[in-house]
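Q: Now give one record:
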Amino acid sequence: MTWCIELNVSPQSGMDGINIDTIEKIAKKNRRMLEQWKTPTFFVIGHAPSISKARQLANEYLAQHPRSKTGKL
């Protein structure tokens, strides 16, 4: 199973949100949004073979990008 790390780039969010989910669920969510003529605001910035590795990569990203205000996962 492939786990993806997504970054929310929506200007309405006020901060960078991180989401971790499977590639299948992300594809389904994005297809649904596009069918409703909405632009997805979460973009995949990395992937990992396990949820623990995905969390580690997300925390490393947050540490390197202090603009992100969501805290550790």
Q: What stands out?
A: The radius of gyration is 12 Å. The longest helix spans residues 51-64. The first strand starts at residue 3 and ends at 8. DSSP finds two helices and three strands in the chain.
